[in-house]
Request: fold
Amino acid sequence: MLFNSIVYSQSISFTGTVSDTLNAPLESANVIARPLKEGVPMRFAIADHKGRYRLELDSSVAYEITVSYLGYKDETFRYSPGSGATSHDFLLKPSDENLKEVVINYDYQPVVVKKDTLIYDVKSFASGNERKMKEVLEKLPGVEVDKNGTVTVQGKKVTQMLVEGRSFFGGGSRLAVENIPADALDKIEVIDHFNQVGFLKQVSDSDELAMNVKLKEEKKKFLFGDVEAALGNDRYYAAHAALFYYSPKTTFNFIGDNNNVGQRTLTFDDMMRFSGGTSSFLNQRKPLSNLYAFTEGDQEVIENKSQFSALSFSHRVSDQFEITGFGIFSKLFTASFTESVTEYLQNDSGTVELRDYQSRNSALMALGNIKLDYDRQKNEKWYYNGQYQFSDNDFSSRLTSAINGTATLFETLRDAENQSVKQYLEWHKSYSPAHTTTLVINQDYTKFAPENSWNTDRDFLPGLIPLQEDITYNVNQLKNITTNNVDMLFRHYWVINNLNHLYTVAGHNHSHATLTTREWQQLSSGSVNAFSAADGFGNDLRYTLGDTYLGTEYKFMTGRLITRPGLYLHRYRLATRQPDGNNAFSRVLLEPQLNSDYEFNKSESLKLSYRFSNDFADPEQMASRYTLQSYNSVFRGNAILRNERFHKVNLFYTKFSAYRGLSAHGGVSFSRKVRTIRNDVEVVETTQGGAILLNNFTTPVLTDNPETNWSTYGSLEKKFWYLSVKVYSRLSWFEYTQRLNGVGSINSRNSRQVGISLRTANKKWPYISVGYDKTWSSFKGITRSNYENEVFESSFAYEFIPQFTFKADYTYFNNTDPQGQHNVFQTGNISMAYQKKNSPWGFDIRVNNFLNNKEKTTSSFSDFTISRQTVHLLPRIILCGVRYTL
Amino acid sequence: MPLHFICQITHGKIQYTIKFDEKEYNGLDFYQEALKGAPRLSYSLDFTANEASFYLNPYMSTDDKSTSLAVSFAGVYSPIYSDLKKSEIRYNNNENSLLTLKEEFIITKPLKMEWIIGTESKMIDGYLCFKATSTYNTMTSRGIVTYPVVAWFCPKIPVALGPKGYGGLPGLILELQEHYIVFGATSISLNMPSTPVIKKPVKGELISKEDFDALMLQRQKRLSELQKK
Reply:
């Protein structure tokens, strides 16, 4: 074997054999000749099957020739150039090393590798007239930026964009490239992360490029953003501003929106940024607030006026400690108009009620959220998140209800004030790679205080509420529900070895609630007729639910199967204190669970999970006095409700092949409640002054009637050529026992859904997507009923002339109601936008609901009714808008 | 201890641990997670008279993503098989790539390497090791890229093999650093009662590393065309 070494002209061959004391040859023994002179390379030789070796030595240098072999003592021979020696045989004597298993204890440390960094000095390439970073990048040799803000350097994509060594507003390169002012740039570094592996499932054997932007000392703070304003017909308008402030330690992001066209106030990117970005993906923590609602518009109303402002900030106190937070203030006014036809299923003929419902709602919301992230040491992390939310909803509605021709008018006013404080604290520590502990404390305080007022010209709920005769009837209700939950969890994770992990969990969840209701009739004379305890009204409930638990889960791997059985022991205690009496019961219950994962390979797996759990009634279900729910329904809770028990099984399959462009998912879920809390309903028909009213009276009851729920879901998505096709299907079946007017019947609700969608997947083509979805729903009980929904959706986007983008979408919706009637609804939106390259100005025209479709009809089932609703929508709105980018 | 059976080392199994350079992808969350997962991984080098195989030992992922991320960064997905007779290394392509199907290719490259042995030496737990350096080449869209490989081999252990298919040095490679990842030997078992079964790639079209790199470049170009605007 030859090694890279320079062979001098004057070299001699030195040979010999290597054997042990029994003269057996030691094949593969390594012979090393170390020169005793500087600058001369070492020489190596390996003994062959007969123990022979051959070294090429520099004839003028002295060497120390050593032979070493595991299990034997090293032997050294001193070679001197003048000695004339040309060979030596080594005889190795055994040592007393244990050869069965050699263990090596050594702290291996990687040596820091210098990376290839390409540094562009901006001033050498920029002219000084550029506005934003994008224009400067385009002037750097080998650098290109595309429409979406993706940067490539010599054809290789930049996968990580950093500013001053940190990620920029948690986002990708687009925000940075399109907004950082050109005059703030000092140097652009391109760092090559040569990697045999492209992580994040990208290209194999590729390199990752990171771009780090270095800012000028005096320009490390800057402001950017954009402002849009649009005006339309009939006094419709929309205005939106997104402003960002950047400095190396502190950043701010402000979003303001004011519109009356039902458009969404936050984009999905905005919401991700407020919720913490990618780091929250790694942490799997549930956010305290769900901002998703702000990313959806609401056009199923006849009037919508929204004023919204949000501010988020982040401040890096030190390398280990970061504070982020946001505040949202929103004022939303909506007016809606719905017509519905409801069929009550208490007998074969079924009684039908026609309703006309108009409502107006003013909602005021203020929300403040703060997060602290502290990496105390490398292996210890603290995380705190606190949120305060206040909302005030002012709601009024007019309801006209008609049965068999005669109508009754109800007006409802509701003023609800809610306050909530939520906090989450997590402490996480790794003692060693094998032991980790986590402590989580969760606290949630909510106060919900609605005031309802019902107004009508006839008396209602006769016999059920103690009304006094009057010209008009006005009943008021004050409700106050305050809950405080504190959950504590301590968890220890032990990695016993590669294939066995053990978790131990101990925790306590405590829930405390108070609920009070008070109803009274405001007589037109001015005096008050209070519904008293004697009438069965007036709740005053104190509710406590405590759950102390201890559990263990053991995760182990056999072949490709990972199994994780778990057993939890819970001690539950539910106590209620009410004027009619106190109740308490406690139970020690075992809740087993099982999770199994079978990994066919890295991209295909099958998961199974099983749980047996207990659920307890909430305060409203246990308040034992009457509570008025609406003009035609009264509810009474049940003070002796115990826990529901149910089995839940899920099977889930997933397959993903990046190269084939294939993604498949499928799943089956099954749940069976063996002890259920279900509402017992009594529907009473009364006649008052010629008008027929249907009143319902509901009480939750614990039964042994099982409830079974099956559902399956499957979807397949594949890329063909330049198209992406998706096919999916969903089936569900729900069977339960409903008691209606004392008669129990087994009801089942089924639905079947299939859908297919296609979209173009080539950026050079216009974006076209079409989809079709059909759902069949059926109800079987004392009566039978079906309805169908069919939806066809399409959308289109194309930049047909440079800088002009045209977008359109169209939806066709066909609902076949239980009576067999077809209700067709079509809607569409069109927009045209013009954005001049590298200019701060942009213009657009939008037409929402260009078909001017005013109504949408859908059908639904409930425990004992089937109904069809028609909701009225915002009309056609044409908006002309202007956009300016700072 | 009977000595006569030590004469020939016919088969063995070496365990390796893995460590990443902390400063490599500074600021990247995924990499920080991978750093946490690296200590839980271990690799095996099994060898017999004519074959050797280097592979990731079965592992169970933890609840967080750290272990699987560490596996991704380490880059050894399927066994790297050394055919000592044919003087060739064979391994399957990465099954999660956007450019290849699972087990589409068996990539081959010559076993022989150019090593430069200097004079540096160090002790690894009482075993004298010498330093050898080489380079790893890969073809990218910007031409051939090379990065350094540093191996510490121990002549006392007469097994001319090492992690990731590296070998051919006069002694077992106890420590190998390829770019920002270091593999370190933690235990050596020789001439055990049972001979290990050598894992090797079975399915796939044989292709040389050079041809494979060129093909990947072609496929990558085609993919970028689709994504470009």
